[in-house]
Amino acid sequence: MMLKIKSSYTLLFCLLCGINLLSAQNQEEDKLIFKALQDELNRNKNELYLPGFDKPFFISYTFNRAHSFEISASLGALISSLESPRSSVASIRLLQGNYHLNNEFKYYGQFTDIRMPCEADYNIIRRNLWMGTDIVYKNALQEYANKTAYFKENPIAKGETYPDDLSKIKPVVYLPASKPAFHFDRRKWEDNLRELSAIFKNYPDFFNSSVNLGGAEIDIYKQTTEGSRLKHSQSYVMLSVQASLRSEDGILFGDVWSTIASNPDDLPDIEELKKQIIAFSDNLIRLKNAEPISEYYSGPILFEDDACEQIFSDNLLNYNSLFAKRKLDARESGKTLEKRIGKKIIDSRLTIKNYSSLDKYKNISLLGAYEIDAEGVVPAQEITLVENGILTHLLNGRYPTKYTTESTGSSRYTLSVGRISFTTAPGTLHISAKDGLKPEKMKKALIKAAREEGLDYAYIVRKFAGQASLVYKVDVKDGKETMVRAGNFSPINLPKLKRLLAISAKERISNYILNQEVLTSLICPSAILVEDIEINPSELRKSKEPVLLFPLKRE
User: Fold this and answer.
1) Which of 503, 504, 500 is nearest to 532 (CA)?
2) Under DSSP, is residue 262 helix (H, G, I), strand (E, B) or coil?
3) What is the pTM of this model?
4) Which of 147, 230, 329, 444 could join 222 in a cystine, given CB atoms 3.0 to 4.6 angstroms apart?
């Protein structure tokens, strides 16, 4: 017995030693990477110029190290299992001119990427930066000449002002303590996916199904001639399930379910995942046997859960919504809501705020939390974007626009492994409602609104997924719900959200990857009642049955 105790302490001691050694090694590699970036940056800042031309006024080097993996399984068998070794890439941004007018024509956070060694090697990092910077500098000189020529031929009208090409910021040093270790047990998750995907053997109607797991841990180092030195660390893992089937009337449709976390250990346990996959599968089977919407409808619709969240996301988190955007010609903002600042854009009961560093809400972790943005700007912890339905502010990076001149610290690194880029995105967007109804009263409000319009029925939509959307026909007399297959919905845009019939007081909290690029969190009402939405029956082409039955179905 004493021997076992001694062995356990020995194992623990070795494990702690290993963690300390790994931490020390990581710190040494961090120092080496920053030294290589700084040394090459200093040399180019002082010596990079061609006779007859000015030196660059701004240079930044960004270095990305990433480790990624992807596993896929179907019907209990492993389809693929890939785990990349730690790979590296760097990005060079070089600006000729000044803050007011520089060589950039395209205003987005993607610059020249160059390959880097897998190992943190000082000499190779400097060599590759030297080679890349030479090319970028010569290109910048040509771009700046073209841009200044353009403005000579197209002068700004008298009385108009031209916003700066880049806003000035105070340099920041941000070197946070290391995050908790990213634990990825490849063999464990291969076994988990085999077990989870085997569930679909019980559903022979699904001719195509799979369970997939993907993720990455990414460290980003940045050094600029302004004096900023930054390190960002981000990680994610997403488990997704997909299945396809054919309805009795020959319509092909499928659906996807997913869950996301910052670390594999934070995903639901396998028993909970099994429950979710079974519920997902049972819903698809019910849809297979559901009647399609067969007649035109115009009237109130209650949007709940996923459907409600998607409506808010589609209208407020698309590229032309709550984000300032600079046009490519560098003169005016692109098509956004900027010209509507000070005007009502949504129901007056709604207020929208952006939180940057809020990492938990009602004991749920928020993956959108961050302390500093990709350009070295410390964001305000809270920014009100819409107050009582009135647009007051937009999120922006360091590209000033006519109506949004200051950075809100909203440049976010994308989850790219093979390249470096950033885009304007929120941390956590919180859409709060005053005078919201209790969840159980929302359906009553729907029935009342339908009855007042003389309708015999109304609809509840709980998820948008094409033909796999979760749509329920509600009888006005008794409130009975019947699942139906979705039709074609009229657009549910911002004008439709300016006067809502009812809003739920209950909130929904979600984490996801915005535009498949940036970790973002959304807190919004769990349901909204929209006054007048049209639904037309879908006209879908039916597919022919396979010559032979799906093997599992035959058996």
Assistant:
1) 500
2) coil
3) 0.91
4) 230
